[in-house]
Known about the structure:
Number of strands: 2
Low-confidence stretches: none
Mean pLDDT: 74
Amino acid sequence: xxxxxxxxxxxxxxxxxxxxxxxxxxxxxxxxxxxxxxxxxxxxxxxxxxxxxxxxxxxxxxxxxxxxxxxxxxxxxxxxxxxxxxxxxxxxxxxxxxxxxxxxxxxxxx
Length: 110
């Protein structure tokens, strides 16, 4: 379960399909040519989606930040105790374009 209501899931899919012209392909294909800050939250021990796939996506995007959330599993990201802090840390610098989020693989503050 995603943790979203059926209505929320339907709205998410509607927006997703509208934003990406109705094409549901790979994430990499969908994001090709789009420049936007991206926060990738993933459990390194996710039993359903290998962590290396998220690492590859992050390394392919100069605007990506990967935040591992150990213990979240595949469907527990939204309920993980560190998720809100990770999102807040990611969004805070976006308010000031002179201080963008750190690049993938780069330590915060450097």
